[in-house]
Amino acid sequence: xxxxxxxxxxxxxxxxxxxxxxxxxxxxxxxxxxxxxxxxxxxxxxxxxxxxxxxxxxxxxxxxxxxxxxxxxxxxxxxxxxxxxxxxxxxxxxxxxxxxxxxxxxxxxxxxxxxxxxxxxxxxxxxxxxxxxxxxxxxxxxxxxxxxxxxxxxxxxxxxxxxxxxxxxxxxxxxxxxxxxxxxxxxxxxxxxxxxxxxxxxxxxxxxxxxxxxxxxxxxxxxxxxxxxxxxxxxxxxxxxxxxxxxxxxxxxxxxxxxxxxxxxxxxxxxxxxxxxxxxxxxxxxxxxxxxxxxxxxxxxxxxxxxxxxxxxxxxxxxxxxxxxxxxxxxxxxxxxxxxxxxxxxxxxxxxxxxxxxxxxxxxxxxxxxxxxxxxxxxxxxxxxxxxxxxxxxxxxxxxxxxxxxxxxxxxxxxxxxxxxxxxxxxxxxxxxxxxxxxxxxxxxxxxxxxxxxxxxxxxxxxxxxxxxxxxx
Length: 473
Hints:
- By secondary structure, this protein is α/β, with parallel strands linked by helices.
- It has 20 helices and eight strands.
- The protein has an eight-stranded mixed β-sheet, sandwiched between helices.
- Helix 4 packs antiparallel against helix 5, helix 7 packs across helix 12 and helix 9 (180-191) packs across helix 10.
C-alpha cells in the first residue's frame, strides 16, 4: 500500500508545535489506540515535550509497555526514556470512581460531600453507570489541562463499540441527570413543605407512586437527594460536560482517528471524520495500523497460484514415473523366474552353507560363500540393494522441494490477496475523504511490550514507514 505524498500525515511538526496541548486518539475498539497514544507520548517526550498519557484501557497494556507495575489516577513518571532533550513522560490510568469523588470533594464542603459520597445512587452511578467512564475521561482531561503542569496531554479514549461514544456519552449522561424526569423527581425536594405536597397532589402522585413500585421508594429518594445535592454544589452535569466539550474544540487540540485497514474499522473511521467536521473539532489525520506488506509484490497472487499448480502437476508426474520404474525393476517384480527361484530355494534359506555365508567371521574376514564374499541371492543383499534404489523417492512424511515451493507460493498468494483487500478498503476511504492525511504502520509480528517497541512504532508513525520490521542480525 502506497500513499500519495500530498496526503501523508506528518506527525513530528504536530508533536513539536508548542501550541498543540492535547492529542486525542480515538477510534473503534481493537485498532491499537493505546499503543498509538503511548508511542506518540514517548516520541514527543524524547523530542523535548513534557507529556502525560491518559489511558482508559482496562487491559493495562500501557503500564506494561512503559515498564510500570501499575497505573492509577495519579500520573506516574516513566523511567528509561531518552531525556537528553529535556522532556519528561508521565502516564496514568483513569479511575472513574476516584475521579468522580474528586469532583465532589473539590466542589462541596465536607458535610455535603459526605452526603453525596455515601448516597447509594451516587455509588452506583460512579461505579459503572452507562456513559460515566466517558464523562469522567473528559473531566480528568479538564483537570489535567487546568493544572498546566504538562505542555502536552495524549488521551487514549475509552474502548467502546462505537468511536462516537467518547463524544456522545458525556452529553447523554449530562442530559439524563439534568433532564426533565430528574427535574420532576427532584422538584418536591426543592419546593419543600406544603408547596411540594401541593405540586405532588396536582399531577405527580400517580407517577411517583408508579416509579416507587418499579424502582423502589428508597431508590427514588436516593435519586432526589443526590441530584439536589449535586445541583447546588456545582451547577449541573450538562454544564460541566459542555465546558470540557469546548476544550476539545479549542485550537490547541488535535484529534487522530486510529483504524485498521479493515472494512468495519474504516467505515467507523469515515463516520467519525464526518462527525468531527460537523462538530468543528480540530482533526489532524488518520493513523492506519497493522498494514500488511510484501517484499515480492511483483509476483501476483494469480501467478503464484498458477506456478504452485504447475509444480504440483510436475511433482505428481515424477512420483508416478518413479513408481512405474520401481515396478518394472527386476529386483522389485520377479521376472524370468531367476530371483524367485533363489528366494524360494531351500538351499538358500535352509542349508548350513547358506547360513555361514550370511555371517562374517569374527576377525572381519569374508565368509566362504564365494570367492569375492558376495551373495547376490541372499535376502540381506537384495534388501540392501532395494533400499539404495529407493533413496530417490522422498521418505515417508517428508515433502519434496517442489511441494515445499508450491506451499510457499500459496502462502504468498494469500498475502497478496490480503494486500489487495486492504488496498481496496483504503481506496474506498480515500475516495470518500481525499482530504484526510494518513500515516501507516506495518503489522508487526508480535505485541509491543516495552519502550523499545513503542519507540519503533513512533519512528514508523513519524517517518510513515509501513514496511515490515527488519530482522535482527
